[in-house]
Amino acid sequence: MKIVHQALCLGLLMLPLAAQARPITYPGGWSLMTMNDMDVNSAEVYYTPDPNYSIGWRHDYWRDPKANMDAAQLNYLLKRWNNPGSQGNLYLKSGAGFAYEDGESQAAVYAGVAADWEDRRYYVSYSNEFLTAGDIYKKASHTARVGIAPYKGDSGDLHTWLMLQADYDHYRDNEFSVTPLVRLFKGTTLGEVGVNLDGGVYFHLMKTF
Amino acid sequence: MKKLSFLTVLTFVTLTVPLAFAGEVVHVKTLGLVCDFCSKAIEKVFLDTGKVESTNVDLDNALVTINMKDGQILDDEFIKTKITEAGYEVQNIHHQAEVKHD
Known about the structure:
- The complex is a heterodimer of chains A (209) and B (102).
- Chain A has 209 residues and is mainly β.
- Chain A has one helix spanning 2-14; strands spanning 29-36, 40-50, 53-62, 67-83, 86-101, 104-119, 122-133, 137-148, 159-169, 176-186, 189-195, 201-208.
- The termini of chain A are far apart.
- Chain B is an alpha+beta fold and 102 residues long.
- Chain B contains three helices and six strands.
- Chain B has helices spanning 2-16, 36-47, 76-86; strands spanning 19-21, 25-31, 52-58, 63-68, 89-96, 99-101.
- In chain B, strand 3 and strand 4 form a beta hairpin.
- In chain B, helix 2 crosses helix 3 (76-86).
- The radius of gyration of chain B is 18 Å and the shape is globular.
């Protein structure tokens, strides 16, 4: 089984880089984001002062061990590909702060790349994150997605995506998971809900102002 | 008397001829425009200029329509900059002077 997991992880690494939701919006844009799954409750707020980067704050509550993290975050747009009918993005995500557990705190740092490509029918993304918070928590995760839109919505319509997400985290007991999910997107509001093959609920909400 | 006649004619013309020049309409063909979020980003960056009445995004044709306020204009370089700030690229720009029938 370990070999299968390693092969899947290697496969994910070889996919084109991609991401879940854009960590940089437009100049002057504020974004609020929450994400909940079996491992973490996460909340982010970030501001985009420039088309190439955003700054923000992130709070994580980790379920195992029961610990929290607060961190300042910097996201940077490394490359954007604008093509007729499609767009691709490559981002660098990083942050630094503190993790807390039972009154103890330790420095926490993380970094990763995230990328996506989409047209109006298909979507593919990949992101990874490497996080260390001393003895409290460690993470080395890879997330990949493929998605398809059952119809092509125009501006102002409700956009629907059916997606399949694969997650791998080297440090979790349940290292590998697959989550079918639905993404609904209208204007600047994005919502996602899914249930992984082990029954774990995934929920993601994002709003940009 | 001549002055009075001129003013009378001018008033008559102003009140009866239903033509008025309104803001320019700019059509921008773009690259990378694929999602509903795009239209909000476009709207945000152009409305912030104070010169734009409204914007419209046609995802099927990757076309952005910018409706300028009366008497306002934006040059092509500025439009390219704003489209890039919103996250997309310009293929071509077409200006259309709109004549509004009141």
